[in-house]
Amino acid sequence: MAPTGDEVDAFLHDEAHPIFDSKKEEEDMMTGKQYTSSELLLKPPFYIIQMGTPRSGSTFQVTLLNTIVHLKTQQWYDALGESPPKISLTMDTPPPPKGTQQGPFVVKTHHLKGNRWMNDLKKRFGITTRVFTSSNLNQTHVNSTALHHQAMPNMFNCSLCEVDSYVPIFGLSQEDVKLLKVYMSYYEIMRQCCGLQQPVEIQSL
Questions:
Q1: d(CA 121, CA 81)
Q2: For residues 38, 100, 102 and 90, what is the CA-based torsion angle, rounded to 10 degrees?
Q3: What is the rounded CA–CA span in Å between residue 69 and residue 77?
Q4: What is the sign, positive or negative, of the torsion defined by CA atoms of 78, 80, 83, 88?
Q5: Residue 200 burial by Cβ neighbours in a 10 Å radius (0-12, 13-18, 19+)
Q6: What is the full DSSP assignment across 180-195?
């Protein structure tokens, strides 16, 4: 089940935030030290946060994550013969819990530190929020728990190849990968032709 246009805010405004990193963490992420087998495979319900530096393809990553989460959630609940829960896509913080329940979510943020709500959800509901990150060539994150880091140079070479990185994390089938690459190829066309990331000359028309 693909996310709706309202859910996928492909044109979220980027805000500048300070970058805190170390050279070792940058080298680890750039050389593929991304996740451990003990944390795989992820299954519903999903609690995801995408932490990205501005202009690092962070909206591409959060859109891909949101699409994967909807796809795998639908498959999971179809197998159970049940209706899937609503999955929220939000900026910076997840939606507030309802009573004693926290619904599944995908959160996008440029705040690389200070996401204290993650610890709060862990204490209140036993929820572990899974972290995914993106950065530019000379920038990275201090978050060592990221299951996958999206490096901008790889996006220039083959952005759709990023889908393959999520196969072991979410247990994607060959059919899943095919569907996701088709979906994201359409998203890339829309992002570049019709959104805030289109050429300035076109925006001014």
A1: 28
A2: -150
A3: 12
A4: negative
A5: exposed
A6: HHHHHHHHHHHHHHHS
* Phi, psi angles (nearest 5°) of residue 55: 60, 40
Tens-place pLDDT, residues 99-144: 888 999 999 999 877 678 999 999 999 999 999 999 886 455 546 7
Q: Which residue has the tokens 């959160």?
A: 107
Local structure of 67: helix, strand or coil? helix
- Which strands sit side by side in the sheet containing 88-91, from one edge to the other? 88-91, 105-109, 47-52, 130-135, 148-151
Phi, psi for residue 139 in degrees, rounded to 5: -135, 150
Q: What letter represents residue 46's amino acid?
A: F
Note whether 48 and 132 are within 8 A (CB): yes
Identify residue 83 by its one-letter amino acid code. S
Beta-ladder partners of 109: 51
DSSP 97: P
Tokens of 159: 């952005």
The pTM of the whole model exceeds 0.90: no
Does residue 196 have a cis bond before it (omega within 30 degrees)?
no
Q: Is there a contact between 47 and 130 (Cβ–Cβ < 8 Å)? A: yes
Interaxial angle between packed helices 58-80 and 174-194, expressed in degrees from 0 to 180 and rounded to the nearest 10: 140
